[in-house]
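re: that chain from earlier
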Amino acid sequence: MAHVVFVSLFDEWCLGVRSMSTILRDKGHKTSVIYFRDLHSFNDTQGQGDPNGFHNPPGSVHSRDIEALIGHLRDLQPTLVGFSFM
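^ sequence. v structure.
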């Protein structure tokens, strides 16, 4: 069976991701959910001035956060990665 990793961006509630994860687990798949920063950090400016970060107001992410996410995904070795933008 597949190992599906969902990445929820700036949304710790992520009801759609949680529902999809549960459905896939019930069908025998392994799932993981990564909560990539919470809604309260959406308007910060961490990525501003970081040449390897991401800064597109109102969202901003420092390169160290991006590297941590990539490292965590490598450790999990998923079959499929899904990103939630809602």
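Helices lie at 15-26, 63-76.
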